[in-house]
TrEMBL record, chains A, B:
Signal peptide: none annotated. The keyword Oxidoreductase applies. Keywords: Oxidoreductase. Pfam families: ADH_N_2, ADH_zinc_N. InterPro entries: ADH-like_C, ADH_N_2, ER, GroES-like_sf, MDR_fam, NAD(P)-bd_dom_sf. Residues 18-334 form the Enoyl reductase (ER) domain. This is NADP-dependent oxidoreductase. One of its GO terms (molecular function) is oxidoreductase activity, acting on the CH-CH group of donors, NAD or NADP as acceptor.
Amino acid sequence: MTTTSTQIQLVRRPVGWPTHDDVRTVSVPLDELADGEVRVRNEFLSVDPYMRGRMNDVRSYVAPFALGETMTGGAVGRVVESRSADHAVGDLVLHQLGWRDVAQADAAAFRVLPAIEGTSPSLYLSVLGMTGFTAYLGLTRIARLAEGDRVFISGAAGAVGTAAGQIARLLGASQVIGSAGSDEKTALLRDKYGYDIALNYRDAPIREQLNAAVGETGIDVYFDNVGGDHLEAALDVFNDGGRAALCGAIVGYNSTERTPGPDNMSAIITRALTLTGFTVGAHLEHYPEFTARMTEWFGSGLIAVDETVVTGLENTFDAFLAMLRGANTGKMIVAL
Amino acid sequence: MTTTSTQIQLVRRPVGWPTHDDVRTVSVPLDELADGEVRVRNEFLSVDPYMRGRMNDVRSYVAPFALGETMTGGAVGRVVESRSADHAVGDLVLHQLGWRDVAQADAAAFRVLPAIEGTSPSLYLSVLGMTGFTAYLGLTRIARLAEGDRVFISGAAGAVGTAAGQIARLLGASQVIGSAGSDEKTALLRDKYGYDIALNYRDAPIREQLNAAVGETGIDVYFDNVGGDHLEAALDVFNDGGRAALCGAIVGYNSTERTPGPDNMSAIITRALTLTGFTVGAHLEHYPEFTARMTEWFGSGLIAVDETVVTGLENTFDAFLAMLRGANTGKMIVAL
């Protein structure tokens, strides 16, 4: 009988890189289920770059995490007890209640998922879920990818990047260029994810590498997961009318100093570029469209997936830190 | 009888601030008019910030000026000889043949203008022409100004800025904030151009001043004529979903060093901002709409105008340099 829930809570706002002193683990007794409530044993938790931003108390499109409360975020689990007519014991569900082994709340918090034979339910935290939606939204609605466009994606071996490269290709991009932080990752980008060019940003400044690779033909779309030197590199090679979807700037997330922006901002005017930052929450009206298309692509075997899986709730925070360091290929997942 | 044309030509690409050695003045004999051609004696020439960019040989939406050729740009003059059925001697015309006292070309190069009683034809180089269109386009199509928006305009006492402040108000902005480089200019912004708040950027860092003035309520739209520290200041105070129309970055036009960009680029993501650079040439389909609305506003006495007038073709280059230094209030015009 599941009567307690172990949870990870934010107790201090990190300055620079988060440490274990910024969080605590608590076990709380669970109330009896009230009418309309559901209890879920989680199987997979999501750790995502945007969570680092929510640890800060800054004005943002997404509210900061509250101190002393459990870290929220995507999770997939199974219903173990239900007082909801719509949720049966054994149902696979997706929810946003985050870093805990057992989640209990009003049934409306839990969305029942279809089981996909032969694949892990964790995919609903990655390519079939918010991660895939982030890539799809950024390319289609934010960067307005058109057929024939040349596309550069930074952080290409990460969860969003691996999805974005494939989606760009499926949407008709004529060339897909990616950056990642190891030769293993760049090989994977070329061999598994269909990138035409994959650059290891540790080999030489990404600006030099990108100019050398595509300085002549340029890029039309940039999907930014990294920021900093990568955005600067992209601004160098944009064609007229280029569009950047700014999704993440992981390079600065744990910086305690203000770092200067690109030294070539004037390109935004001279080449009539558009830079648009986005978070998915403001665009959920496109989610059904994403689900329809991604389900078809995935079902047709057109989408390759990698996961980096860490096991155990007690390792969630370390998995989060490892993801921020770029230790993952594809989505970083915590399996309970 | 007009038989020669005196013209100012670019002979060297400036490094940093342009100097007189970068241009030369030549007098060229004029051919007899061919059938379909028109000869125009110019009355007013335009000197504009974008011309500095065109002096460089860099990839840009607008082609660089050719070395050894006459500087092109907006000019207004009167037809003195015509072999075109559509252009009568005495007609007031607008053209793009630039820095010369007499212009001669196929009639298609000259657009006949209506005379406006009691006002100078030079207004077709400013608020009734490309300058006004730049302000209108940037606010309506690039920054997508909505009623009730709070708007910040840098370089507000310049040609585009004085137009933009008034247009923003007419389009329903709830608050208009401007920056300029002297107390005389900020007084003018408040008293003549309807700005709610006018900041003298020489008093203290514009970032501090803007945060103090509107840090609480924020801005929704930023019309950027300056770049650099002004763009950084705007990024600090943007509300969620804010839009920046990047029209100019005069602060960097004559810099020989790469200057770092804003240190707060992450705001673009966390507040889902859009930064869009633009030049008017790519959006001429909106020109008739602009003309219709501006003619109505202007005719109703709703548009105040300042000009800074320099006399004599021989002073054109100095007028251009003075404009780059911000010596003008409203449009800098050369009267011949």
